[in-house]
Design brief:
The protein has one helix and 34 strands. It is an all-beta fold. Among the domains are: about 30 residues, Laminin, CATH 2.10.25; about 50 residues, no CATH class.
């Protein structure tokens, strides 16, 4: 057992008490199982699974989402047009009854999909692909996929053979080439290809490789090795597809702790012969463009990459979290800082290692490391924040969700949101 104490000399505290208990089994089997003291494992009661019996086979939200718990399988059976562990995922764009409500798509299963951080994800069609990450004890090199149209199960992507059955996990043997285990890398998709750049390897070395995974032939390969110009080995950067033809690497941090402000661009039209191009920072303060742990999405209407948050090196020793929203115009190769009233409650505070996507006329930001360190000790944010791309204002998410059900006057360009947030 490891107990970790953190002290900040900037704040004077009067001390604290630490209370803890030790049980033979994880979380004492959550009260839903029997602890086998010899093996320190849980034997779950009927209707519960997980290493700590923490997961109910039939979600508490099953009935409220139109489902029904089956007395034989003890699982939630969903009505037509609904998917997921709690039947909360609608495949009908006109069904907005769950607008603004999170739903659990899959059962937690640590044995088949290990909990992780620092991974990278990309969406192709209706499938979410995830590569690598760290469990905090080990670094992963698996590529897994979940498709909305499949039965609710994760799949391990086969490294050599045809696709496995979508009804269960499948462990496959390694085939070469295959990216080394890593975390802090970035990944995006163009057509039927996944592109992965950088990351910190198991030994602590930062990678400068650009990998491409072709979904058609189920093969990885390294590209761009012969390019005259190359980005440095990076972690905490972003890799964003533009016009289905270009890859943009923005920001990141080298293994020596240097933050990068240059933008690196590569065309994927003539694969596998590719050449990186490097563009110096222009427009605004160059220091604001040195980022790691930020988000970047491409907005086609404005021809811009929208970059939000991240760590910025305010000084050599203490990087600070940023709350800036900046636009990088891909044609003019110039940065612009977008201004807004930071005092409004709908505006997200400074953060890093969050995620962002574009849905219709909105950029949606989720989570991140915020570390509120005054009255409320908060390390991570679980909220959603919405930025209107036409009006250039942050919109209250509650009002936006109400608009889906017709109870608000907020104008929307789309009536249904389906997004994967990792």
């Amino acid at each position: 057992m490891l107990i970790y104490f953190f002290s900040d000399r900037n704040y004077v505290r009067s001390g604290f008490y630490a209370h803890y208990t030790i049980s033979s089994c994880r979380q004492n089997c959550s009260g839903h199982g029997e602890c086998l003291h010899d093996s320190h494992e849980c034997r779950c009661f009927a209707g519960y699974i997980g290493s700590a019996c923490q997961q109910s086979l039939c979600s508490d939200a099953c009935s409220s989402n139109g489902g029904q718990c089956n007395d034989d399988t003890l699982r939630c059976e969903c009505p037509a047009g609904r998917l997921g562990h709690d039947c909360g995922l609608s495949v009908d764009a006109s069904d907005v009854t769950n607008a603004g409500v999170w739903s659990q798509v899959l059962l937690l299963d640590d044995d088949t999909f290990m909990p992780r951080a620092g991974h990278a994800a990309a969406v192709v069609d209706d499938c979410l692909y995830v590569f690598g990450g760290t469990t905090l004890n080990s670094v992963l090199d698996d590529l897994v996929v979940f498709c909305v149209s499949w039965p609710s199960a994760w799949q391990t992507v086969d490294r050599s053979d045809p696709w496995p059955s979508p009804s269960a996990w499948q462990t496959v043997d390694r085939s070469d080439p295959w990216p080394t285990a890593r975390h802090g890398h970035a990944m995006c998709a163009v057509d039927r290809r996944l592109f992965l750049y950088g990351g910190v390897l198991a030994g602590g070395v930062t990678s400068s490789e650009l990998w491409m995974y072709d979904l058609t032939v189920s093969r990885w390969q390294v590209i761009g090795r012969s390019s005259v110009v190359k980005p440095p080995a990076l972690s905490g950067h972003t890799l964003t597809a533009v016009d289905d033809s270009w890859l943009y690497v923005v920001g990141g941090r080298t293994s020596h702790g240097q933050f990068i402000s240059d933008v690196y661009v590569l065309s994927v039209d003539n694969l596998p012969d590719v050449e990186w191009r490097r563009f110096r920072s222009r427009g605004g303060r160059e220091a604001d463009h040195r980022l790691a742990g930020h988000s970047a999405v491409y907005h086609n209407d404005s021809r811009s990459l929208l970059v939000f948050g991240g760590f910025s090196p305010e000084n050599a020793r203490f990087p600070r979290r940023s709350s800036l929203l900046m636009a990088y115009h891909v044609d003019d190769k110039r940065w612009v800082t977008l201004s807004y009233d930071a005092g409004l409650p709908s505006v997200p505070r400074e953060r890093a290692y969050h995620t962002a996507i574009i849905v219709g006329s909105y950029m949606i930001v989720h989570g991140g490391q915020v570390h509120v360190h005054h009255e409320d000790e908060t390390c991570y944010d679980a909220q959603l924040y919405v930025y209107h791309l036409s009006c250039h204002v942050w919109v209250d998410f509650v009002s936006l969700a109400d608009a889906f059900t017709g109870t608000s006057s907020v104008c929307l360009s789309t009536r249904h949101i389906l997004c994967f947030l990792f």
